[in-house]
Recover the amino acids of this structure.
């Protein structure tokens, strides 16, 4: 019942690199306390110290420190050290805009007011010999609040800024973010509230631009502080700057997005569906029952286009039928790597009005719809449009669910959107999905004298059992190896004496 050391051995060896795309996302194993991840925080007053010393950076530091991400903030500007907030460098500039002309009338952190725009500031920031590994870029509120064209800012000014960043740091990763609401903004002498309706337009155009850049191979990603900073509870009285609670929400959003682009050795956080992805859709008004949400449903005759999908609002990228039927159906596929088990999904859905989300043919959750069976004539419980919150239809509302029905390879997400009334003048849908789980353990083999040694890591291998087979073609041929398992230097270790039989091994849980 033992291995012959000259015979072939099949190992279920699952490599970390299988999750890494052709782009150069950061790999945590490349960094240490002596070689920390260099993060440059770039932006306006929400990043600078104009309102709060350390702004959101003071809350991001402990999230990274306590979760095993060795890092340092880099930049020419420094906040004051305050308690445990010790990594104080940044490139935040109160009143900053993306492109010239600057709009400030007083100097900011060494720049004359007219020069407080990032296309010159960022270029200067790279001349001091510091090249960041990661740029966190929060900018646009002042551009939109001063009445600049939101689409032009997102598709011309921001791309030019990205070009400047990558010309100086071609291997850097950049996370942009949708900007915060300007609803009820009341900065002294400035009428930012008049342009609040342009914020969703800017954010939607920014999302499309980021997707385009990423499709071309650039390491550009998108966060969404517009959705996570609650307009009712997380702003100062000026309704422009987040309060302490809002800054914590901003930091948590940055942390989630940082996790999703840094490859670790065990835990996995990965964006499986991006906002603005291409979805297939059926907008014919027909009753599709429930078969449409199944993985084997033939959707080859459906139309397709990038989200946001819908009609009746200026952020829509793909217009579906405006015949005002109650229900419209959407399908999108996503790929789970073979070496990952996802156990939790953070689904972020923006919908007008109600929706049911399905995963591989099973209902995952519903929102703003009644309990019980849902048909194509079921109305949403209420309209999501609120007179109190400009932009509420464009908030990506989060739902966390435990999941066990994802499998390696292609999976299916399906969403049915229901209007709250017959003849509604607008519908809309977009969704992000961020998966959290762990890598499956890799099984390794080596010789030790006359013995063979099988090992797998303790960090992500707890609960796995070693199985063996002598014939891969035989159904049900895998049996528990019944081997003695020891631990040594972070590894589970099984030592075997070889014999004349060819054996195959795999790890299995349970």
């Amino acid at each position: 019942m033992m291995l012959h050391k000259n015979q072939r051995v099949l190992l279920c060896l699952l490599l970390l690199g299988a999750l890494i795309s052709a782009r150069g996302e950061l790999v945590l194993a490349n960094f240490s306390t002596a070689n920390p991840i260099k993060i440059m925080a770039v932006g306006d007053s929400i990043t600078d110290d104009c309102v709060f010393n350390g702004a959101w950076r003071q809350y991001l530091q402990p999230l990274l420190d306590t979760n095993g991400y060795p890092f340092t903030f880099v930049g020419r500007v420094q906040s004051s050290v305050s308690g445990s907030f010790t990594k104080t460098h940044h490139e935040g500039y109160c009143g900053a805009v993306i492109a010239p002309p600057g709009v400030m009338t007083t100097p900011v952190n060494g720049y004359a007011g007219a020069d407080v725009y990032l296309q010159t500031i960022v270029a200067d920031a790279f001349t001091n010999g510091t090249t960041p590994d990661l740029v966190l870029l929060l900018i646009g509120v002042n551009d939109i609040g001063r009445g600049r064209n939101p689409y032009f800012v997102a598709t011309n000014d921001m791309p030019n800024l990205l070009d400047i960043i990558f010309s100086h740091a071609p291997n850097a990763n950049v996370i942009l973010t949708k900007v915060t609401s300007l609803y009820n903004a009341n900065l002294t002498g400035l009428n930012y509230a008049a342009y609040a309706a342009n914020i969703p337009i800017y954010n939607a155009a920014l999302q499309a631009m980021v997707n385009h850049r990423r499709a071309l191979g650039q390491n550009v990603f998108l966060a969404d502080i517009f959705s996570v900073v609650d307009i009712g509870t997380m702003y100062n009285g000026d309704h422009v700057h987040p309060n302490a609670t809002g800054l914590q929400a901003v930091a948590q959003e940055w942390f989630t997005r940082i996790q999703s682009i840094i490859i670790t050795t065990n835990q996995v956080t990965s964006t499986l569906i991006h906002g603005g992805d291409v979805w297939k859709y059926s907008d014919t008004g027909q009753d599709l029952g429930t078969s449409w949400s199944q993985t084997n449903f033939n959707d080859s005759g459906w139309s397709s286009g990038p989200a946001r999908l819908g009609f009746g609002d200026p952020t829509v990228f793909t217009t579906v039928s405006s015949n005002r039927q109650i229900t419209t159906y959407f399908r999108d596929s996503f790929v789970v790597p073979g070496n990952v088990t996802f156990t939790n999904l953070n689904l972020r859905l923006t919908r007008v009005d109600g929706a049911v989300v399905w995963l591989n043919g099973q209902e995952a959750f519903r929102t703003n719809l009644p309990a019980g069976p849902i048909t194509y004539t079921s109305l949403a419980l209420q309209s999501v449009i609120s007179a109190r919150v400009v932009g509420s239809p464009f908030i990506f509302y989060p739902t966390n669910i435990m999941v066990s029905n994802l499998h390696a390879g292609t999976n299916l997400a399906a969403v049915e959107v229901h209007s709250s009334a017959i003849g509604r003048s607008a519908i809309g849908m977009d969704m992000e999905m961020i998966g959290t789980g762990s890598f499956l353990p890799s099984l390794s083999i080596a010789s030790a004298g006359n013995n063979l040694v099988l090992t797998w890591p303790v960090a992500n291998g707890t609960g796995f059992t070693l199985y063996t087979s002598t014939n891969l073609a035989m159904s049900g041929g895998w049996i528990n190896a019944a081997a003695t398992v020891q631990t040594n230097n972070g590894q589970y270790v099984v030592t075997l004496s070889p014999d004349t039989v060819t054996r195959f091994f795999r790890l299995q849980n349970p």
